[in-house]
């Protein structure tokens, strides 16, 4: 990983997995020139859900959020590239799909605030990317490799 690259945590939520959107989401980040460094298809348990969404524990929607994210398998990923956290967020769209521009993942596929297909680390929350990566992945699950021609990566 070169020094100006950044890693960010992304996850296709249970609705996205059930609707068969994993491949499309992965394709979008590949097409954008980001580099995949980790991926895990998994079932989140209650403890991990509570910790992942800890910032929202006092919100009225917290219980629903934990219930939803543990309702079925998710596809967790780490993507790398210059300014990756911000780039991914701009491709994800707004929290509410109704406010998300067409062309964004939530603008194209999101149904409502809960079923908004994807989670991505918040670029306005300093260190959220690294925190979330280490919550979901062990260091040895982050694969360090070169793409054939890095000239074409973001
Ligand atoms: P995320 O963390 O999932 O990438 O989404 P986000 O930053 O855009 O949204 P955030 O404010 O962190 O909220 C986390 C997730 O909680 C659900 N939510 N429900 N009912 C509500 O008012 C409400 N507000 C947020 C959404 O599924 C959101 O992605
Ligand atoms: Mg968030």
Report what the structure shows.
- The active site is at residue 119.
- One of its GO terms (cellular component) is cytoplasm.
- One of its GO terms (biological process) is UTP biosynthetic process.
- Belongs to the NDK family.
- ATP binds at residues 13, 61, 89, 95, 106, 116.
- There is one protein chain.
- This protein is of the alpha+beta class.
- The chain has a single domain, classed as Nucleoside diphosphate kinase-like domain (Alpha-Beta Plaits), CATH 3.30.70.141.
- The chain is built from seven helices and four strands; from the N terminus they run βααβααβααβα.
- A four-stranded antiparallel beta sheet has the order 2-3-1-4, sandwiched between helices.
- The longest helix is centred in the N-terminal third of the chain and has 10 residues, at 22-31.
- It is globular, with a radius of gyration of 15 Å.
- The model has no long low-confidence stretch (mean pLDDT 95).
Quick summary of this structure?
It contains seven helices and four strands.
Helix content: 25-40%
Counted by DSSP, the helix tally is 7
Strand content: 15-25%
- Backbone shape: globular
Characterize the main sheet.
4 strands, antiparallel
User: Order of strands across the widest beta sheet?
Assistant: 2-3-1-4
Ligands bound, unique: ribavirin triphosphate, magnesium ion
The low-confidence parts are none
Report the radius of gyration as a whole number of Å: 15 Å
Query: What's the average pLDDT?
Result: 95
Give the name of the CATH architecture: 2-Layer Sandwich
Number of domains: 1
Count of strand segments: 4
For the termini, the CA-CA separation is: 13 Å
CATH class: Alpha Beta
- Enter the CATH topology name: Alpha-Beta Plaits
